[in-house]
Amino acid sequence: MKRIITAVVHNRSGVLNRVTGLLSKRQFNIESISVGRTETEGVSKMTFVVDVEDERKLEQFSKQLNKQIDVIKVSDITDKQIVARELAMIKVLTTPQQRGELQAIIEPFRATVIDVSKESMTVQITGNSDKVDAMIELLRPYGLKELARTGLTAFTRGQQLHQTEVKPYSILN
Amino acid sequence: MRASTEPKPAEDKQQTIKTGADLLVEALIEQKVETIFGYPGGAVLPIYDALYRADGSFDHVLPRHEQGGIHAAEGYARVSRKPGVVIGTSGPGATNLITGIADAMMDSLPLVIFTGQVAKNVIGTDAFQESDVMGITTPITKHNYQVQDLEELPRIVNEAFHIAATGRPGPVVVDIPKDISATVFERDVKNEFHLPGYQPTVRPNPLQINKLREALIGARKPVVLTGAGILHAGGTEALKSFVSNYDLPVTSTLLGLGAFPGDHHRFLGMAGMHGTYAANMALYECDLLINIGGRFDDRLTGNLQHFAPNARIAHIDIDPAEIGKNVPTEIPIVSDARKALDKLNELEPATLDHAEWVEKLESNKQNYPLWHNESEDVILPQYLLRKVHQFTDGEAVVTTDVGQHQMWAAQYYTFNRPDRWVTSGGLGTMGFGFPAAIGAQIADKDSTVVAIVGDGGFQMTMQEMSLLQERGLPVKIIIVNNQALGMVRQWQEKFYDKRYSHSIIDTQPDFVKMAEAYGLHGYKMENIQEIDRELGDILNNDKPAVIDCRVVQQENVYPMIAPGKGSHEMIGVSKP
After folding, report:
1. Residue contact A56–B135, C-beta within 8 A
2. How many CB atoms lie within 10 A of CB A22?
3. B139 vs A21, A63, A71: nearest CB
4. Are strands A29-37 and A82-93 parallel, antiparallel or unpaired?
5. What is the pLDDT of residue B15?
6. Which family does it belong to (chain A) (predicted)?
7. What's the CATH code of the domain at B483?
8. With 70 as the cut, is the pLDDT of residue B2 above it?
9. Which among B180, B386, B401, B569 could bridge B565 via Cys, Cβ 3.0 to 4.6 Å?
10. Residues of A whose CB is below 8 A from B195
11. Which of A164-173, B69-78, B327-336, B453-462 has the lowest mean pLDDT?
12. Do B116 and B176 fall into the same domain?
């Protein structure tokens, strides 16, 4: 099952290495990981998308992360109401004649063209991963020359409405 | 006349100038460090210079190989329950410490290891004696630091000791670039620490404590499993009260031996791969298993599918990540073992309805005790270990390497007191036992310390005999010499159709002469008459000794849970 986990970490040198080393040592599958600074100085936030077998593996994932001295807080936000975004840049092969056609494809996704050359153009899209996947599939037939994704970053919405299936997770029993 | 008026201030100044290394030494004094296990080298020259100037502040133990030093620090930590302090230089000095760091990590021993590093401006250039200590030690430490700025050194030292010794203990590495320890520094620096991501839970959740008590009262077949967490927490007295409050049967992990008296009538012996039949069957058949401070290691559980299949599992551990890691747990209690036991002991004692169970365990104990062959002349290793127990009244500190001799020591040297048993359990390190005994003897000068080692393992770290010679430490080294890597040989016999691939080592040094070369007394014993006649005197005098005991090579450790089998599928339970 796919889960979205966030970790607030002390921004000390080597913290990313600690976390990724730990996850590979314990054989966890990371689909994506994104890291960046937060509103607090010296504190960064990591967002992981992981594929875990079951609840117990998931619990281990959170616990092992929590055990790191530089990790301040771990949350599984999969079942919460969240805003989650990733950014992708896609360089598509295109003839000058096809540019209009591509423009029409990407427009409903609110993607933008950020670079054009003789035989390609580069599109930037922001959104949740499903949306990004969908647009990539539509562009694929034209020929993808290059593709780069940032991985998902996410946090919970300011207001949690209609929470029916929120699973609180705590290491304190 | 002029000379007497002038130079005084300069002299004062000379004394107040401090380097980073002086700050380190001050921090160590503040931590009340008494003993340092260290080996000098290029990148730690400034630190050694500061130690020279602070002469008398510490007992500095100089091993003959860094690995010996760190294993000694582990033995020291295990017996004294204080952090062992280690210093090594950069590059090979640091990499020689790796086995000990990994060993301490697996067995939760508090160590603070200072490694020298090349100067900051050449880090990353493959400089002479540079190694990526942070990269190498990150997966095998509780935490590690590289000091980037002199001002943070005292804080880091403080944090390192705090992290190493609190919560679940473990090794912490502090990597200090040479320019930082050499920098002259005049201001005072703050050393308070800031660890928002490290707040171990030490007090149990009362709801879970109540749940455990309810489970206890409803249990018909309860059993307690003791782990080393009880020893780290100093919880042996609390455990005794808890066990007697409910009249519970007790078994132990390898590392938990001594947490509960081995001669207690409710003690079933050690459980696990070479545990007793009574202990393993108790784990298999119980309906409530209370694990206190153990981590359900695979050598304990055997095949997890057959582990305690009908039991509700309660697990008290200070490390939440251990709970539910290997065995699904119904009653998780994140807590210091002693604090959890104290809480449990505050509740009204109860009489359990478990007479039938206790009787069954008792009959298992009577009908399937540990057994071994008998001999009139040649030395059987089990006999040797029983004699060691007898001659030391079961009071000695016993250290071992890994393998057959370790299992025989665990089986036959009955531990009645805590902190007497120093063994490499998790990592299973050959060459651990002898240097660990040196550290144990330094921590506990009055006790008899016996290093039970194999002939294979001893040859990995035997150069530390120099330390016995130098310090007159009365460590007794008993070489359980079967001229083989015994456990490897046993597995090859059982599971590889007797293809003894590189496990028989019949070329050996003359250990007696080797001992004499180091100025120690060496003895060779080849029959039980010599053991009976001489071993007692040797163990009870105040001189170091190397005792080469030639034992029967073909002896195997029994009983045994074969790899992949469940704890109810033991072989070699009774004498054939």
Report:
1. no
2. 18
3. A21
4. unpaired
5. 53
6. Belongs to the acetolactate synthase small subunit family.
7. 3.40.50.970
8. no
9. B569
10. 69
11. A164-173
12. yes
Q: For residue B297, what pLDDT band results from cuts at 50, 70 and 90?
A: very high
Chain centre distance of CA B447: 17
Contact by Cβ (8 Å): A103, A139:
no
Question: Using CA atoms, how far apart are residues A4 and A84, in angstroms rounded to an integer?
Answer: 9
Q: What is the pLDDT of residue A155?
A: 87
Please check whether residues B151 and B54 belong to one and the same domain.
Answer: yes
Per the CB < 8 Å rule, is B146 touching A71?
A: no
Domain ranges, ordered by start, for chain A: 2-76, 83-154
User: In 3D, which of A14, A37, A27 has the Cα closest to residue A64?
Assistant: A27
**Closest listed residue to residue B350, CA positions, set B247, B207, B264:** B247
A21 near B CB under 8 A: yes
Length of chain B: 576
Decide if B178 is catalytic.
yes
Q: Which of B134, B320, B332 sits opposite A14 (nearest CB)?
A: B134
Pick one of 3.40.50.150, 3.30.565.10, 3.30.720.210, 3.30.70.260 as the CATH number of A2-76. 3.30.70.260
Q: How far apart are CA B208 and CA B221, in angstroms?
A: 20
Of B134, B319, B334, the CB nearest to A172: B334
Residue A75 has a CB neighbour count (10 Å cut-off) of 16
Q: Quick check: do A2-76 and A83-154 share a fold?
A: yes
Q: Tell me how crowded residue B489 is: count the other CB atoms within 10 A of its CB.
A: 24
**Among all chains, which residue has been given the structure tokens 């108790």?**
B282
pLDDT at B5 exceeding the cut of 50 = no
Instruction: Count up the domains in chain B and report the number.
Output: 3
Give pLDDT tens digits for B108-155.
999 999 999 999 999 999 999 999 999 999 999 999 999 999 989 999
Provide the CATH number for the domain around residue B353. 3.40.50.1220
A128: exposed, middle or buried (C-beta count within 10 Å: 0-12, 13-18, 19+)?
middle
Is the Cβ of B320 closer than 8 Å to some Cβ of chain A?
yes
What predicted TM-score, i.e. pTM, was given to this entire model? 0.93
Q: Is B322 a catalytic residue?
A: no
Report the distance separating Cα B413 and Cα B332, nearest Å.
33
Thinking of the domain A83-154, which architecture would CATH place it in?
2-Layer Sandwich (3.30)
Confidence of residue A164 (pLDDT cuts 50, 70, 90): low
Tokens 């760091």, residue located: B101
Beta strands, E only, chain A: 2-10, 29-37, 43-51, 71-76, 82-93, 112-116, 120-127, 144-149, 153-156
What does the pLDDT average to over B347-357? 95
pLDDT of residue A168: 52
Rounded to an integer, the average pLDDT of A82-92 is 95
At which residue do the structure tokens 């598509």 appear?
A: A92
Cα-only R_g, chain A: 19
Look at the block and give the residue holding tokens 């590289």.
B146
**What are B306-350's pLDDT values in tens digits?**
999 999 999 999 999 999 999 999 999 999 999 999 999 999 999
For residue B315, what is the nearest residue in chain A, using CA coordinates?
A173
Decide: B62 and B56 in contact? Cβ < 8 Å. no
Which structural domain, as residue segments, surrounds residue B25? 18-185
Q: How many residues does chain A have?
A: 173
Contact B164, A40 (CB under 8 A): no
DSSP string, B7-23: SHHHHHHHHH-EEHHHH
- Together in a domain, B23 and B154: yes
Report the complex ipTM: 0.89
